[in-house]
Amino acid sequence: ILAAIAVPNFLEAQVRTKVSRVKSDFRSVATAIEAYRVDFNDYPWFDNGAYPKKYGALSYRLWNLTTPVAYITTVNFRDPFVMMGTWGNYNDDLLRYQYNYRNYKFFGNWGFDCWVLNSLGPDRVKSQGLKTEIMIRGLDTSATPTIIYDSTNGTKSAGDIPWTGGDTRYTNR
Question: pTM here?
Fold first, then answer.
C-alpha cells in the first residue's frame, strides 16, 4: 500500500525537477544569447541545414556563444525529456539529445527579430513545429492547449517547454 502511494509521488517529483532544470538551462542560454546580441547587435545565426552527426542542434547552432568569446562555457545541454533515437535520426551514445534553437529572423521578414529555445516537455512529443509563430506573436494559445506545456494541467500534460527572447510578445513562464 505504501508503494502505491509513494511511487506516483516520486515520479511526479522527478518530472517537476526536470521541468525546473529545463527552465534553469534556458535562463543560462538566454543570458548568453542576449549578451551576444549586445556585442554584435544581432542574435546568433540560425543554420537550418544538416549539421555533423557529432553535434546536436543546440551546440551546432550556438557554438559562437562559446568561441572565441565565452558568453557561456558550454552549450551541450541535454534535454531531459528526449529519449534515445528521437529528435531525428540520433542513435549515437555520444550525442547530447539537446534542446532546439531557432532564430526567427532566418525565416524572413515577420516584422520582429526573436529566437526560441525548445524542449519536448514531459510528453516527449514535438508539439510546436510551425505553431511556434502563434506563441512568439503572443497570440491566444487556449484554442490549442497542447502547444505549450502547462503544469496546472497536470505534471505530465502535453506540450513543449519554450523560452523566447527578443522582439516577442510571449511571456516566459
Answer: 0.77
